Structures are given as structure tokens and as C-alpha cells.
Amino acid sequence: MNETVSKENSTFGKLTKASLARRFLSGLIDVVFLSLTTFILLIGSYFLIFPSLNYFSNIETMSSIYEESHLYIKKDNNSFISLKEAFNPNVNLKEYYDDNIIYFYKNDERAIYENKLEKYQNAKIASGLFIEESGEIIEKSDINSEALQAFYEKHYDEALEIFASNETLSHLTSTNYWIMMGTLLISLFISSFFFYLIMPLLLKNKGTLAQLMFKIGCCDVLSDGMPTKMKLFIRYISFFLASFVVPLVIYKFLPYLSVLIISLELILICVTKDRIGIHDAVSKTYLIDLRNEVLINKNKNIDDSYSDDRIQKLLGN
User: Fold this and answer.
1) Do the strands 80-82 and 285-289 form a parallel or antiparallel pair, or are they unpaired?
2) Residue 140 · residue 105 · CB < 8 Å
3) Which residue has better confidence, 313 or 12?
4) Helix 145-164 vs helix 116-127: angle between axes, to the nearest 10 degrees?
5) What is the 3-state secondary structure (H, E, C) of the chain?
6) How far is residue 81's CA from residue 160's CA, in Å, rounded to a whole number?
7) CB distance 285 to 235 below 8 Å
8) Phi/psi at 122 (nearest 5 deg)?
9) C-alpha torsion 273→275→277→279, nearest 10
10) Which burial class, exposed, middle or buried, applies to 254 when counting CB atoms under 10 A from its CB (0-12, 13-18, 19+)?
């Protein structure tokens, strides 16, 4: 891999671009710094902020809804799995599936409203696997166990569909999701704000700490000098939106698309001639190799010369 891009072949700024290898290594170190800081902030939020947002009380309510439905089994770690996931060939199918389905249909408001218990009992008779004796529907004595299991599992899935439409459960699940996502975004914003904006504003290379270690600088495309504070701000905001906000918001609805959006930044840096990502293009900045180039504050030079002219006029020269 070539370490630099020649100035003659460059179209996005005239200075020598930082190599992909050094850019990715510096990016990896920055991600480690960012991840550690974000993790610390999340841990703090978990103990200090989550209780005030009713996150844990929501979980307790959700747990009660799952437990009271009789359609799930509670594990030792307080999580729940479906009856199908926990199925054991040695279980009594009637006690394992039938009794719990009937209990759910008798106690769930939506199931009662849709008359699901009567429909379930009618489905038993129609299946040919059951008979009615003394007002009760019981399994036939010569029943095929595989056919019976398939029947129970089919109607268990239907019960799960009713359970999934529980408005309280849906609301609490959505609320806790956005509490988690909101906290994650705020933590990422605080961490990235420090590493990707404050540090570039303070460091002489106008890049991140890791980029300083690898002798990489951030340059303005138009002036081939140090970018202004506004450009660094635009660079950071576009980076934060493209790398964190958009993927996390989309993740709830289209998880695979969010992965693609996160990868898009890396793909663009790899395939574009001048190795620019979305934040580079939006802010009109690019990363240069400080081993071969000198980053000059051309904006400062312009401001200084303007100030000198003002002083000379005031002195009457």
C-alpha cells in the first residue's frame, strides 16, 4: 500500500494525504478512547439517571406481565424464554402447553374480547385429536404425540401474537428502549465532543489525539491551511450525525440498514480517490501527512496582517 497520495493526483486539496493504514490505526485508537469514556458515562447514568426515569420500575412491570401470562418461563437471571425455547421432550404436553394457553385466554382482556378460548376449544374438536366427554375436551387415547405437539405449538404461537399486542408492554418496552438509546447518544455526544472537537481545537495538528500521535493533521480544502473553528465544528457535527445519531435511530426499525450506514463512512474513505468520508466532504476538510507537510494557520496570518494595517493607519503611517 502506498503511504501517500501524490499532490499531482489529488483533487481534494493540494497537500499530501494521510495514508489509509495510519488513518485507520489512529481511528482505531480514537474509538478505544471514545468507547472507554462512553462506557464510564453509561455506568454512571445506569446508577444515577435510570432510576429517576423509572427504567427499573418499568422492567419490574414488564417482568410481571410476562410472568402472569403463563406463556413464558422465568430463568435464574430473571430473563424470560418462550415455552417452545424451553421445551423438554419429557414434559406432559397438556400441562406444558394446553393448561397455560387456557389460563392466558381466560385472563387476558384482549383474548376474552376476541373469544379466543372458545375458538381454541373448537379448534381442538376440528383437529380430530380430541374428544368431548362430560362437557370436557380431552386428548384421544391413541393420539399421535408429534401431531399433538404440532397442534399445541401452532396455537401457542397464536397466543403469543395476542400477548405481543399488549399495549402496556409495548409502551414500556419502547420507553426503556429510548431511555437506553437517549442515554447512549448523550454519552457518545459528551465523549465525542471532547475527543473530536475540543481536542482538535486545542491541538496544533487540528486533529484528534491519536492523529497527533501518527503525525496526521486536519486541513482546509480551500486554503490548504488550518481549518477554522467553524469548519472543525461542522466536521464534528456531520461526523456525530452520520456515525451515531442516524444509525441508532434507524436501528430500532431497520437494524441491517444501520450497519450499512455505519460502514458507509469507512467504505467512502477506502474507495474515494482522496480518502474522504462524509464529514470530510461536508466540512470541506481533509487529513494530511505531517511528515511531508507543514500545517499553517493561514487565517491567523490574514488576521494579523489586517491588524498591522489598522495599527499603521492609527499611527499615521
Assistant:
1) unpaired
2) no
3) 12
4) 160
5) CCCCECCCCCCCCCCCECCHHHHHHHHHHHHHHHHHHHHHHHHHHHHHCCHHHCHHHHHHHHHHHHHHHCCEEECCCCCEEECCCCCCCCCCHHHHHHHHHHHHHHHCHHHHHCCHHHHHHHHHHHHCCEEEECCEEEECCCCCHHHHHHHHHHHHHHHHHHHHCCHHHHHHHHHHHHHHHHHHHHHHHHHHHHHHHHHHHHCCCCCCHHHHHCCEEEEECCCCCCCCHHHHHHHHHHHHHHHHHHHHHHHCCCHHHHHHHHHHHHHHHHHCCCCCCHHHHHHCEEEEECCCCCCCCHHHHHHHHHHHHHHHHHCCC
6) 12
7) yes
8) -65, -35
9) -110
10) exposed
pTM summary value: 0.77
For the four alpha carbons of 151, 155, 156 and 158, in that order, the dihedral sign comes to: positive
The residue whose grid cell reads 457518545 is 188
Beta bridge partners of 289: 216
> Taking the CB of residue 234, how many other CB atoms lie within 10 A of it?
17
pLDDT tens-digit map of 206-236 = 999 999 999 999 999 999 999 999 999 999 9
Record the cell numbers describing residue 81, joined without a space.
424464554
Residue 126, C-beta contacts closer than 8 angstroms, at least 6 positions apart:
none
Beta bridge mates, 131: 138
Condensed to tens digits (0 to 9), the pLDDT of residues 112-127 reads 999 999 999 999 999 9
Confidence of residue 317 (pLDDT cuts 50, 70, 90): very low
Q: What is the pLDDT of residues 272-283, one digit of tens each?
A: 887 888 899 999
Question: 98-107, 142-151, 184-193: which range is least confident on average?
Answer: 142-151
